[in-house]
Specification:
heterodimer; A: about 325 residues; alpha+beta; Phosphoenolpyruvate Carboxykinase, domain 1; Phosphoenolpyruvate Carboxykinase, domain 3; 2 domains; five-stranded mixed barrel; 7 helices; B: about 100 residues; Outer Surface Protein A, domain 3; three-stranded antiparallel beta sheet; 6 strands
Chain lengths: ~325, ~100
Protein backbone atom coordinates (compact mmCIF):
# COMPACT_ATOMS: atom_id res chain seq x y z
CA UNK A 1 0.00 0.00 0.00
CA UNK A 2 1.21 3.45 -0.67
CA UNK A 3 0.55 6.59 1.35
CA UNK A 4 -1.20 9.57 -0.16
CA UNK A 5 2.07 11.22 -1.02
CA UNK A 6 3.57 8.30 -2.92
CA UNK A 7 0.36 7.89 -4.90
CA UNK A 8 0.70 11.29 -6.48
CA UNK A 9 1.40 11.24 -10.15
CA UNK A 10 4.17 13.32 -11.52
CA UNK A 11 3.09 15.74 -14.26
CA UNK A 12 3.34 14.33 -17.77
CA UNK A 13 6.15 16.50 -19.09
CA UNK A 14 8.89 17.70 -16.78
CA UNK A 15 8.30 16.57 -13.25
CA UNK A 16 9.24 20.07 -12.23
CA UNK A 17 7.86 22.92 -14.21
CA UNK A 18 10.36 25.63 -14.58
CA UNK A 19 9.78 28.58 -12.32
CA UNK A 20 7.33 31.02 -13.73
CA UNK A 21 8.07 34.65 -13.41
CA UNK A 22 4.56 35.88 -13.12
CA UNK A 23 5.08 39.48 -12.33
CA UNK A 24 7.52 42.18 -13.10
CA UNK A 25 8.92 44.55 -10.52
CA UNK A 26 6.71 47.23 -12.03
CA UNK A 27 4.51 47.10 -8.96
CA UNK A 28 7.27 48.77 -7.02
CA UNK A 29 7.53 51.91 -9.05
CA UNK A 30 10.13 54.55 -8.55
CA UNK A 31 12.12 52.51 -6.12
CA UNK A 32 15.70 51.45 -6.02
CA UNK A 33 16.84 48.69 -3.69
CA UNK A 34 19.74 50.50 -2.08
CA UNK A 35 20.32 54.08 -1.09
CA UNK A 36 23.55 55.59 -2.40
CA UNK A 37 25.84 57.44 0.05
CA UNK A 38 24.58 60.77 -1.33
CA UNK A 39 20.98 59.69 -0.73
CA UNK A 40 21.85 58.50 2.77
CA UNK A 41 23.28 61.93 3.46
CA UNK A 42 20.02 63.52 2.30
CA UNK A 43 18.09 61.14 4.50
CA UNK A 44 20.21 62.10 7.52
CA UNK A 45 19.49 65.76 6.77
CA UNK A 46 15.78 64.92 6.56
CA UNK A 47 15.88 63.21 9.94
CA UNK A 48 17.59 66.28 11.38
CA UNK A 49 15.10 68.68 9.84
CA UNK A 50 12.31 66.49 11.17
CA UNK A 51 13.87 66.48 14.63
CA UNK A 52 13.99 70.28 14.56
CA UNK A 53 10.20 70.25 14.46
CA UNK A 54 8.17 73.26 13.33
CA UNK A 55 4.91 71.40 13.78
CA UNK A 56 2.84 74.00 15.57
CA UNK A 57 -0.88 73.39 15.81
CA UNK A 58 -1.48 77.17 16.08
CA UNK A 59 -1.82 79.27 12.95
CA UNK A 60 -2.01 76.33 10.64
CA UNK A 61 -4.53 75.17 8.09
CA UNK A 62 -5.68 71.60 7.80
CA UNK A 63 -7.14 69.56 4.99
CA UNK A 64 -8.47 66.26 6.29
CA UNK A 65 -9.50 63.50 3.95
CA UNK A 66 -10.70 59.93 4.28
CA UNK A 67 -9.98 57.43 1.52
CA UNK A 68 -11.35 53.93 2.06
CA UNK A 69 -12.38 55.05 5.57
CA UNK A 70 -8.73 55.75 6.43
CA UNK A 71 -8.43 59.38 7.63
CA UNK A 72 -5.32 61.44 6.94
CA UNK A 73 -4.76 65.09 7.92
CA UNK A 74 -2.55 67.45 5.91
CA UNK A 75 -1.42 70.46 7.94
CA UNK A 76 0.61 73.49 6.99
CA UNK A 77 1.42 76.91 8.40
CA UNK A 78 -1.18 79.51 7.40
CA UNK A 79 1.19 81.50 5.22
CA UNK A 80 1.39 82.11 1.48
CA UNK A 81 1.87 80.21 -0.77
CA UNK A 82 0.79 77.30 1.47
CA UNK A 83 -2.58 78.89 2.22
CA UNK A 84 -3.35 78.95 -1.48
CA UNK A 85 -2.19 75.35 -1.92
CA UNK A 86 -4.42 74.24 0.95
CA UNK A 87 -7.33 75.73 -1.00
CA UNK A 88 -6.36 73.81 -4.14
CA UNK A 89 -5.98 70.57 -2.16
CA UNK A 90 -9.37 71.10 -0.53
CA UNK A 91 -10.86 71.47 -3.99
CA UNK A 92 -9.16 68.29 -5.22
CA UNK A 93 -10.30 66.25 -2.23
CA UNK A 94 -13.85 67.60 -2.28
CA UNK A 95 -16.26 64.82 -1.32
CA UNK A 96 -13.55 63.00 0.65
CA UNK A 97 -13.57 65.34 3.67
CA UNK A 98 -13.83 63.64 7.03
CA UNK A 99 -13.95 64.66 10.67
CA UNK A 100 -12.56 61.38 11.99
CA UNK A 101 -9.37 61.29 14.02
CA UNK A 102 -6.50 61.08 11.50
CA UNK A 103 -4.50 57.87 11.32
CA UNK A 104 -1.55 59.91 10.07
CA UNK A 105 -0.89 63.65 10.18
CA UNK A 106 1.25 65.04 7.38
CA UNK A 107 3.01 68.36 7.85
CA UNK A 108 3.92 70.49 4.87
CA UNK A 109 6.77 72.93 5.47
CA UNK A 110 8.46 75.26 3.03
CA UNK A 111 12.17 74.94 2.64
CA UNK A 112 13.62 77.95 0.87
CA UNK A 113 17.03 76.39 0.34
CA UNK A 114 15.80 73.04 -0.95
CA UNK A 115 17.91 72.20 -3.93
CA UNK A 116 15.64 71.88 -6.91
CA UNK A 117 16.82 69.31 -9.42
CA UNK A 118 14.43 69.52 -12.37
CA UNK A 119 15.14 66.05 -13.74
CA UNK A 120 15.00 64.10 -10.53
CA UNK A 121 12.15 61.62 -10.60
CA UNK A 122 10.67 60.26 -7.43
CA UNK A 123 12.76 57.90 -5.37
CA UNK A 124 11.45 56.14 -2.26
CA UNK A 125 13.60 54.48 0.38
CA UNK A 126 12.40 52.60 3.44
CA UNK A 127 14.87 52.42 6.30
CA UNK A 128 13.96 51.04 9.73
CA UNK A 129 10.25 51.46 9.09
CA UNK A 130 10.55 55.08 7.95
CA UNK A 131 9.70 55.89 4.33
CA UNK A 132 11.65 58.66 2.65
CA UNK A 133 10.58 60.12 -0.68
CA UNK A 134 12.93 62.33 -2.66
CA UNK A 135 11.68 64.25 -5.68
CA UNK A 136 12.92 67.30 -7.54
CA UNK A 137 10.58 69.61 -5.66
CA UNK A 138 10.24 67.95 -2.26
CA UNK A 139 11.76 65.61 0.31
CA UNK A 140 9.49 63.75 2.69
CA UNK A 141 9.64 61.49 5.68
CA UNK A 142 6.80 59.20 6.72
CA UNK A 143 6.55 57.34 10.02
CA UNK A 144 3.38 55.25 9.88
CA UNK A 145 3.88 53.63 13.30
CA UNK A 146 3.91 57.02 15.01
CA UNK A 147 1.25 58.48 12.72
CA UNK A 148 3.33 61.39 11.50
CA UNK A 149 4.86 62.55 8.26
CA UNK A 150 6.57 65.70 7.09
CA UNK A 151 7.41 67.10 3.71
CA UNK A 152 9.86 69.87 2.93
CA UNK A 153 8.67 71.65 -0.13
CA UNK A 154 10.42 73.93 -2.57
CA UNK A 155 8.56 77.29 -2.51
CA UNK A 156 7.94 77.11 -6.27
CA UNK A 157 6.47 73.57 -6.13
CA UNK A 158 2.89 73.12 -7.34
CA UNK A 159 0.22 71.83 -4.98
CA UNK A 160 0.23 68.46 -6.76
CA UNK A 161 3.56 67.80 -5.02
CA UNK A 162 1.53 67.59 -1.80
CA UNK A 163 -0.94 65.30 -3.56
CA UNK A 164 2.02 63.04 -4.50
CA UNK A 165 3.01 62.82 -0.83
CA UNK A 166 -0.58 62.02 0.12
CA UNK A 167 -0.65 59.20 -2.47
CA UNK A 168 2.62 57.77 -1.23
CA UNK A 169 1.25 57.91 2.30
CA UNK A 170 -1.91 56.04 1.30
CA UNK A 171 0.07 53.44 -0.64
CA UNK A 172 1.90 52.53 2.59
CA UNK A 173 -1.00 53.13 4.93
CA UNK A 174 -3.43 51.01 2.90
CA UNK A 175 -1.41 47.80 3.33
CA UNK A 176 -1.17 48.43 7.08
CA UNK A 177 -4.98 48.59 7.06
CA UNK A 178 -5.53 45.43 4.99
CA UNK A 179 -5.91 47.33 1.73
CA UNK A 180 -4.30 47.88 -1.64
CA UNK A 181 -4.14 51.01 -3.73
CA UNK A 182 -4.66 49.63 -7.22
CA UNK A 183 -4.16 50.81 -10.77
CA UNK A 184 -7.82 50.09 -11.40
CA UNK A 185 -11.07 51.70 -12.33
CA UNK A 186 -14.10 50.59 -10.37
CA UNK A 187 -17.88 50.82 -10.55
CA UNK A 188 -20.90 50.11 -8.38
CA UNK A 189 -23.79 48.32 -10.04
CA UNK A 190 -27.41 49.32 -9.55
CA UNK A 191 -27.80 46.49 -7.03
CA UNK A 192 -24.81 47.75 -5.03
CA UNK A 193 -22.05 45.34 -6.09
CA UNK A 194 -18.52 46.59 -6.71
CA UNK A 195 -16.48 45.65 -9.80
CA UNK A 196 -12.79 46.39 -10.19
CA UNK A 197 -10.96 46.66 -13.54
CA UNK A 198 -7.21 46.40 -13.17
CA UNK A 199 -4.60 47.47 -15.67
CA UNK A 200 -1.73 49.78 -16.38
CA UNK A 201 -1.98 52.82 -18.66
CA UNK A 202 -3.62 51.91 -21.94
CA UNK A 203 -5.18 48.67 -20.65
CA UNK A 204 -8.66 50.16 -20.93
CA UNK A 205 -9.57 51.28 -17.40
CA UNK A 206 -11.11 54.52 -18.59
CA UNK A 207 -12.74 52.87 -21.60
CA UNK A 208 -14.48 50.39 -19.33
CA UNK A 209 -15.65 53.15 -17.03
CA UNK A 210 -16.97 55.17 -19.98
CA UNK A 211 -18.86 52.28 -21.52
CA UNK A 212 -20.28 51.14 -18.19
CA UNK A 213 -21.59 54.52 -17.22
CA UNK A 214 -25.34 54.40 -17.15
CA UNK A 215 -25.27 50.75 -16.12
CA UNK A 216 -23.37 51.54 -12.96
CA UNK A 217 -21.87 54.38 -10.93
CA UNK A 218 -18.19 55.02 -11.54
CA UNK A 219 -16.11 55.16 -8.35
CA UNK A 220 -12.91 56.07 -10.17
CA UNK A 221 -11.33 55.49 -13.56
CA UNK A 222 -7.75 55.55 -12.33
CA UNK A 223 -6.86 54.40 -8.80
CA UNK A 224 -9.10 52.29 -6.57
CA UNK A 225 -8.62 51.20 -2.99
CA UNK A 226 -9.49 47.56 -2.39
CA UNK A 227 -9.67 46.82 1.29
CA UNK A 228 -10.59 43.84 3.41
CA UNK A 229 -13.20 44.91 5.96
CA UNK A 230 -12.56 42.90 9.12
CA UNK A 231 -15.95 43.60 10.66
CA UNK A 232 -17.92 42.70 7.55
CA UNK A 233 -15.54 39.88 6.67
CA UNK A 234 -15.38 40.91 3.03
CA UNK A 235 -13.40 43.05 0.62
CA UNK A 236 -14.76 46.47 -0.24
CA UNK A 237 -13.76 48.66 -3.18
CA UNK A 238 -13.52 52.41 -2.60
CA UNK A 239 -13.20 55.35 -4.96
CA UNK A 240 -10.19 57.64 -4.41
CA UNK A 241 -9.48 61.29 -5.20
CA UNK A 242 -6.27 60.24 -6.96
CA UNK A 243 -6.87 60.71 -10.62
CA UNK A 244 -4.77 61.67 -13.57
CA UNK A 245 -6.31 63.90 -16.17
CA UNK A 246 -9.79 62.44 -16.60
CA UNK A 247 -12.87 62.09 -14.46
CA UNK A 248 -12.71 62.78 -10.73
CA UNK A 249 -12.94 59.87 -8.35
CA UNK A 250 -15.99 59.68 -6.13
CA UNK A 251 -16.23 58.91 -2.47
CA UNK A 252 -18.37 55.81 -2.96
CA UNK A 253 -17.75 52.21 -2.01
CA UNK A 254 -19.26 48.77 -2.56
CA UNK A 255 -18.53 45.18 -1.54
CA UNK A 256 -16.21 43.81 -4.24
CA UNK A 257 -18.06 41.18 -6.31
CA UNK A 258 -15.19 40.57 -8.73
CA UNK A 259 -11.96 42.04 -10.02
CA UNK A 260 -10.94 41.82 -13.66
CA UNK A 261 -7.56 41.97 -15.34
CA UNK A 262 -8.10 43.86 -18.58
CA UNK A 263 -7.02 42.75 -22.02
CA UNK A 264 -8.29 44.34 -25.22
CA UNK A 265 -9.39 41.57 -27.59
CA UNK A 266 -11.56 41.06 -30.66
CA UNK A 267 -14.21 39.28 -28.62
CA UNK A 268 -15.53 39.42 -25.10
CA UNK A 269 -14.53 36.58 -22.82
CA UNK A 270 -14.19 35.93 -19.07
CA UNK A 271 -11.70 33.48 -17.52
CA UNK A 272 -11.41 32.81 -13.81
CA UNK A 273 -7.76 32.91 -12.73
CA UNK A 274 -6.18 30.29 -10.50
CA UNK A 275 -5.24 31.40 -6.98
CA UNK A 276 -1.61 31.96 -7.94
CA UNK A 277 -2.44 33.81 -11.13
CA UNK A 278 -4.84 35.97 -9.14
CA UNK A 279 -2.18 36.91 -6.58
CA UNK A 280 0.17 37.74 -9.42
CA UNK A 281 -2.45 39.83 -11.25
CA UNK A 282 -3.10 41.81 -8.08
CA UNK A 283 0.60 42.31 -7.32
CA UNK A 284 1.21 43.57 -10.81
CA UNK A 285 -1.39 46.28 -10.46
CA UNK A 286 -0.71 47.46 -6.93
CA UNK A 287 0.42 51.05 -6.64
CA UNK A 288 3.11 50.77 -4.07
CA UNK A 289 6.53 52.25 -3.45
CA UNK A 290 7.82 49.59 -1.07
CA UNK A 291 11.43 48.64 -1.48
CA UNK A 292 11.87 47.06 1.91
CA UNK A 293 11.23 43.36 2.38
CA UNK A 294 8.83 43.91 5.30
CA UNK A 295 6.55 46.18 3.29
CA UNK A 296 6.72 44.07 0.17
CA UNK A 297 5.78 41.01 2.19
CA UNK A 298 2.86 42.93 3.62
CA UNK A 299 1.76 43.75 0.05
CA UNK A 300 2.05 40.07 -0.90
CA UNK A 301 0.04 38.95 2.15
CA UNK A 302 -2.64 41.53 1.45
CA UNK A 303 -2.89 40.32 -2.17
CA UNK A 304 -3.27 36.74 -0.91
CA UNK A 305 -6.02 37.79 1.52
CA UNK A 306 -7.91 39.77 -1.14
CA UNK A 307 -7.52 36.88 -3.59
CA UNK A 308 -9.13 34.53 -1.08
CA UNK A 309 -12.08 36.89 -0.83
CA UNK A 310 -12.73 38.22 -4.32
CA UNK A 311 -12.91 36.23 -7.56
CA UNK A 312 -10.23 37.50 -9.96
CA UNK A 313 -10.80 37.03 -13.70
CA UNK A 314 -9.29 37.85 -17.05
CA UNK A 315 -11.60 40.09 -19.01
CA UNK A 316 -10.96 40.11 -22.74
CA UNK A 317 -13.09 42.86 -24.13
CA UNK A 318 -13.70 44.85 -27.27
CA UNK A 319 -14.57 48.49 -27.16
CA UNK A 320 -18.33 48.22 -27.07
CA UNK A 321 -20.98 47.54 -24.47
CA UNK A 322 -21.09 43.77 -25.13
CA UNK A 323 -18.94 43.00 -22.12
CA UNK A 324 -21.04 44.58 -19.41
CA UNK A 325 -23.78 41.97 -19.33
CA UNK A 326 -21.41 39.04 -18.58
CA UNK A 327 -19.54 41.25 -16.11
CA UNK A 328 -22.60 42.38 -14.21
CA UNK A 329 -24.07 38.89 -14.39
CA UNK A 330 -20.91 37.38 -12.95
CA UNK A 331 -21.64 35.56 -9.72
CA UNK A 332 -25.37 36.20 -10.01
CA UNK A 333 -26.43 32.73 -11.02
CA UNK B 1 25.64 23.71 -12.81
CA UNK B 2 24.66 22.14 -9.53
CA UNK B 3 25.68 18.52 -8.85
CA UNK B 4 24.41 15.70 -6.66
CA UNK B 5 27.12 16.36 -4.08
CA UNK B 6 26.22 19.97 -3.61
CA UNK B 7 24.04 21.13 -0.78
CA UNK B 8 21.26 23.61 -1.25
CA UNK B 9 19.63 26.19 0.96
CA UNK B 10 17.22 29.09 0.62
CA UNK B 11 18.52 32.49 -0.24
CA UNK B 12 17.62 35.53 1.87
CA UNK B 13 15.78 37.78 1.72
CA UNK B 14 12.68 36.22 0.27
CA UNK B 15 9.10 35.60 1.27
CA UNK B 16 7.38 32.30 0.55
CA UNK B 17 3.66 31.69 0.97
CA UNK B 18 1.50 28.70 0.20
CA UNK B 19 -1.50 29.64 -1.92
CA UNK B 20 -4.00 26.88 -2.78
CA UNK B 21 -1.38 24.17 -2.25
CA UNK B 22 1.37 25.80 -4.30
CA UNK B 23 4.23 27.89 -3.04
CA UNK B 24 4.58 31.48 -4.23
CA UNK B 25 7.98 33.02 -3.67
CA UNK B 26 8.76 36.70 -3.77
CA UNK B 27 12.43 37.52 -4.19
CA UNK B 28 13.71 40.42 -2.15
CA UNK B 29 15.91 42.27 -4.60
CA UNK B 30 13.42 42.67 -7.45
CA UNK B 31 9.97 41.88 -5.96
CA UNK B 32 9.37 39.22 -8.61
CA UNK B 33 6.86 36.46 -7.97
CA UNK B 34 7.69 32.86 -8.74
CA UNK B 35 5.21 30.02 -8.51
CA UNK B 36 6.14 26.41 -7.87
CA UNK B 37 4.07 23.48 -9.06
CA UNK B 38 3.22 20.50 -6.85
CA UNK B 39 6.64 18.88 -7.13
CA UNK B 40 8.44 22.18 -6.74
CA UNK B 41 6.37 22.81 -3.63
CA UNK B 42 7.38 19.37 -2.32
CA UNK B 43 11.07 20.12 -2.91
CA UNK B 44 10.68 23.52 -1.25
CA UNK B 45 9.39 21.72 1.84
CA UNK B 46 12.69 19.81 2.05
CA UNK B 47 14.76 22.97 2.16
CA UNK B 48 13.96 24.25 5.64
CA UNK B 49 17.55 23.40 6.43
CA UNK B 50 20.53 22.96 4.13
CA UNK B 51 19.99 19.76 2.13
CA UNK B 52 22.09 17.67 -0.22
CA UNK B 53 20.94 17.50 -3.83
CA UNK B 54 21.19 13.68 -3.83
CA UNK B 55 18.74 13.58 -0.92
CA UNK B 56 16.29 15.79 -2.78
CA UNK B 57 16.43 13.48 -5.82
CA UNK B 58 15.83 10.40 -3.64
CA UNK B 59 12.88 12.06 -1.92
CA UNK B 60 11.31 12.92 -5.28
CA UNK B 61 11.78 9.34 -6.51
CA UNK B 62 10.19 7.99 -3.33
CA UNK B 63 7.22 10.31 -3.43
CA UNK B 64 6.36 10.63 -7.11
CA UNK B 65 5.87 8.18 -9.92
CA UNK B 66 9.07 8.96 -11.74
CA UNK B 67 12.26 7.02 -12.42
CA UNK B 68 15.56 8.07 -10.92
CA UNK B 69 17.09 9.28 -14.18
CA UNK B 70 14.22 11.64 -15.00
CA UNK B 71 14.02 12.82 -11.40
CA UNK B 72 17.72 13.62 -11.35
CA UNK B 73 17.60 15.51 -14.64
CA UNK B 74 14.57 17.56 -13.65
CA UNK B 75 15.66 18.26 -10.08
CA UNK B 76 19.06 19.52 -11.28
CA UNK B 77 17.41 21.71 -13.91
CA UNK B 78 14.95 23.06 -11.36
CA UNK B 79 17.68 23.82 -8.80
CA UNK B 80 19.84 25.55 -11.42
CA UNK B 81 16.87 27.66 -12.36
CA UNK B 82 16.17 28.59 -8.75
CA UNK B 83 19.83 29.42 -8.10
CA UNK B 84 19.94 31.65 -11.17
CA UNK B 85 16.89 33.48 -9.85
CA UNK B 86 18.53 34.06 -6.46
CA UNK B 87 15.97 31.90 -4.66
CA UNK B 88 18.39 29.15 -3.67
CA UNK B 89 22.12 29.02 -3.09
CA UNK B 90 24.40 26.03 -3.55
CA UNK B 91 27.54 25.14 -1.67
CA UNK B 92 29.71 22.09 -1.25
CA UNK B 93 29.42 20.67 2.23
CA UNK B 94 32.81 20.43 3.94
CA UNK B 95 32.06 17.32 5.91
CA UNK B 96 30.53 15.43 3.01
CA UNK B 97 31.64 11.86 2.59
Amino acid sequence: MCGPRSCRRAPERDILDKVDTLSDPGSAEGTSPTASPAVREEIRALDQAFGAGGFEPRDCVEVRLGVGDIPVAVRMPAIPPLLEMAGELRERYRGFETSHEPRVTLWVLLKEDLQSEPFRVIEVHSIDGIHYALRFDFRSRLDIANGIGAMFLHPAAPFVAIDAFVRITYSFLAVHEGGLLMHASSVRSRDGRGFVFMGRSGAGKSTIAEILDGQADILTDEISLLRFDQREGKAVVHGTPFWGTLAKGRNLSAPAAAAFRLTKAPETRLNRLSANEAVSALMKNVLHFANGMADRTLVLDTCIQIQGNVPILDLHFEKNAAFWRPVLDYGQS
Amino acid sequence: MVSLDDSIKKHRPLAAREVAGEVVIMTGADAKLHTLNEVGTFVWGLLDSETRVARIVSAVVENFKVDREAAERDVLKFLDDMIEKDILVAGRQQDDD
